[in-house]
Amino acid sequence: MQQNAVELCTILVRDTYGELSSRVVAILLEYGRSALHTIVRRVKIPEKIVKQTLVVLIQQHLVLHYTHDDGGRDTTYYQCNWLQIYELLHSGRIVRTIEERFGTDAASIVSNFLLLGHAKVSDFIAAYGISTKAKPNGTLPNESTISASEATGTAPITSAVQISKHIVTLMQEKFLIPVQLHHMHPTIDTENAIRQKVTNEQTGITAAMQTKMKKAIDEKVAERMESLSTELDNRNFGLKRKSDQQEGRPRKRTKISSAQGSEEEEWEIDGTIVLRVNNAKFLAIFRNEELVRWVESRIGKVTSIVYAELLRHMENKTTDHRTENGLVEVGKKPVVSTLDVGNTLSKDIDLVNSIASGLPVTNGGSHKRHMVNGGSDHFDEAEDSEGDSDDYDLDADVEEADTGVNGKHELSSAAQEKKEQLQNIRKHLALLAEDSNRFVTKHDGSMQYGGWTVDTERLCKLLRTRELEQIIEERFGGIATRLVRIIKDRGKMDEKGLADTALLRQKDIRAHLGALHERGFIHIQEVPKTAERLPARTFYFFYFDEKMSKMAMLNDFYKSMSRIMQRIDHEREVNTMLLSKAERTDVKGHEEELLTKKELADLAKWKRAEEKLVGQLMRIDRQVMMFRDW
Amino acid sequence: MAFRGGRGGGFRGGRGGSSNGGPLMPREFDVKPDFGPTEQFPDYTIPFQDPLTPTERIHIARFRDHREKIHSGPLYTVLGKRKGLENPFEDVVTYSAKKYHRQKRKVPKLDSRPYVLEFFPVELWETMDSSYAPGTDRSVVINGKREKKRLLISSLNTALPNGGLHNGDQSDGSDDDEEKEKKSVLAKLMSHKDEDDDGLSDGNAEAEEDDEAEDEGEEEDDYQDDEDGDYNAEQYFDDGDGDVDYGDDDGGGGGAWYD
């Protein structure tokens, strides 16, 4: 963990949970894993208060803990989970994402889970003012929810049924995940505990044999670690099937995606389960949003909408796990069919007029065949959909899906419309596949209208490269970018070779190379020709190490983020008087009567300034995610 | 570093020019390092921020709102200034400050919600739930206590920062920006007001008052805990505040402070 990241995390915690928490976090980050008494000694705060603070931090998952059971004397160690601290920045975006997808009620649930850290479902539902058993006085405490949402003009959550329905949906889509004990422990401790257990199971093994068994044990440990997380990947983990008698009649949930039979069953939550917000899921969503934005700037608005829809299907089918190396998709790549996209895509989108018809499309068709190793009959039909013979085939497709009856030319207008829509969607997807970045890849299979996969890993790599080059361009200019690209392409190069390849004089590139090296974007390897290691008799090879430049850049990002937060603090300091007046309980809501004109103007100015600074923070956050998480 | 790169390059160039062989002469460096003092504030083109998009503004509004909620919640703490470091003019506890300002919490308030104790190390259980203090019978007390505790649920503020319009259809001109901003600020503050009011009027009122009372008690405790100096300046001022009623003065003349 880098020093600047430590600073940023400390500031973030101070900004969110106050000074006490930030001091404990600072100590934990600075000294690493510590026991309670060590923390107390270092932070110089009474033990009672440190304990209270630790409770807060653990509740919010910002601190992990593990109790070692060594010889009857238990020692608990605390460790900071700094990536979770960083997630504090995403709260706004998380709430907004849910709001856009599931409406305000679900967003309010997620927002509350964020506030609470984790919570037992039964407690949570009860806290909304309604017990699961529907007490008569259930609605009363809920008033605050009602009137507050009335103020902003949204429908309130009125019943426990509604809440649990929202929670079930959120759980199935993995926005909320059950917390288990091992989530509260550092991974390494969990692994050690499992290893201990596995080793103990191999009874009667001498020390000599143990070394032999090491490999087998390692495998077993890895397997068990895996099983810890795969359990959570099950779509309906923590849910139980609802019996039909309860509801009177089984209602069918209108669920999109996935052809599993279980979709039509009702699920309800196990009240004893503890839930929290799944940050990895949101990281995946943010990544997809970024990809969509890229497509929009490269191809066009409508295509990006189609792409967004495709990615949304994709994200329902995969679970991403957060690891040291960013998000890792679990399992095999999911395939999304054009039909899936068509089923959920809004009908209002004008798919037809957004692609230039005629020449580009047919051109694309022939071009396409190189890209996606042929064999895609469906594809070619889509490209020139005017022909009658093509209609014939496509009709058959639709028929197969809908009824399975042979009635080729008796399509209703709705089916016709649907068919056209699908063809158009396919055109857009083809456009994406043809792009040199290959935003989608055609899946070879017998899927109707074709299936598609997205190689997010590769795309993110491209995204990173693009961003990196942009940053270098901005900072060091075009020549430096050119040099970096050459070095990346050719591997290790000395200055002469570099100058030759770049078609520039050595004199001209030297300054650029120096600047790039200084900022950690390129690195030098020295290869002496003689044993004396004279500088004059040494080769200096420049090379590009993605990991190292990534670190250098992340460090810069963290630093500028801390500076922005500090700037906000400073601005707040400058305006203390005004802000404390505006926050007075009697002034709140009556600003216009009680504040002077100047104060109102100043208040607005402060709000705007903070907004701009926070906005910049979010923009850097985007880059941090790009380089660290995706 | 740049310097070293240059040196290597100098040599390479040399070999390219002259033919092989010959004892290697130290060549002149073609990069002349400048060791003189650099300008303190060199010219620098300040980058300008692109205007925030409507989506970004919504994200920011939600972020601020969320932070605000945490700040008004039980977990946010503000450490007071150290004894003797207060500003004698501004940090005096006044009547209006006591009455109208949000109470600052010095320690997080933990006993307001139920916990999942298994997720916490045993040594913290006592802190979270006083019934875990050594020597108490656990199971009975917990069951008695659990009923009372509720998670603190707050409603979501869904006001949009740009005057309620979802998309960026309207121009983000700077002139009406201010107007919008003002509106949104007010809207935001208004909604907070609502929440406050409801908090008092709803069925939970008693419970909350209880909490409030506990809270105050707790804070007093802390004063005793942390600052057991002989001379308690704050206490002194507090008492003075009680005797002489500054309240009216401050309430009336408060405006002058902020101008």
Provide an overview of this structure.
The complex is a heterodimer of chains A (630) and B (259). With 630 residues, chain A is mostly helical. Chain A has 5 domains: 3-80, Winged helix-like DNA-binding domain superfamily/Winged helix DNA-binding domain (Arc Repressor Mutant, subunit A, Orthogonal Bundle), CATH 1.10.10.10; 89-202 and 210-278, no CATH class; 282-357 and 392-454, no CATH class; 458-544, Orthogonal Bundle (Arc Repressor Mutant, subunit A); 550-629. Chain A is built from 28 helices and 16 strands. In chain A, the strands form 6 sheets. Chain A has a 3-stranded antiparallel sheet with strand order 1-3-2. Chain A has a 3-stranded antiparallel sheet with strand order 4-8-5. A 3-stranded antiparallel sheet of chain A has the order 11-13-12. In chain A, a hairpin with a 7-residue loop joins strand 12 (441-443) and strand 13. Chain A starts with a helix and ends with a helix. In chain A, 36% of the residues are buried. The model of chain A is unreliable at 130-156, 243-264 and 358-408 (pLDDT under 50). By secondary structure, chain B is mainly α. In chain B, 49% of the residues lie in helices and 0% in strands. Chain B is built from 9 helices and no strands. Chain B has helices at residues 2-17, 54-72, 95-100, 125-128, 138-146, 174-201, 205-226, 233-243, 247-258. The longest helix of chain B is centred in the C-terminal third of the chain and has 28 residues, at 174-201. The chains are: A mainly alpha (630), B mainly alpha (259). Chain A: Residues 408-435 form a coiled coil. Chain A: Residues 167-461 form the RNA polymerase III Rpc82 C -terminal domain. Chain A: InterPro entries: POLR3C_WHD, RNA_pol_III_RPC82-rel_HTH, RNA_pol_III_Rpc82_C, RPC3, WH-like_DNA-bd_sf. Chain A: Pfam families: HTH_9 (PF08221), RNA_pol_Rpc82 (PF05645), RPC3_helical (PF20912), WHD_POLR3C (PF22536). Chain A: Keywords: Coiled coil, DNA-directed RNA polymerase, Nucleus, Transcription. Chain B: Component of the RNA polymerase III (Pol III) complex.
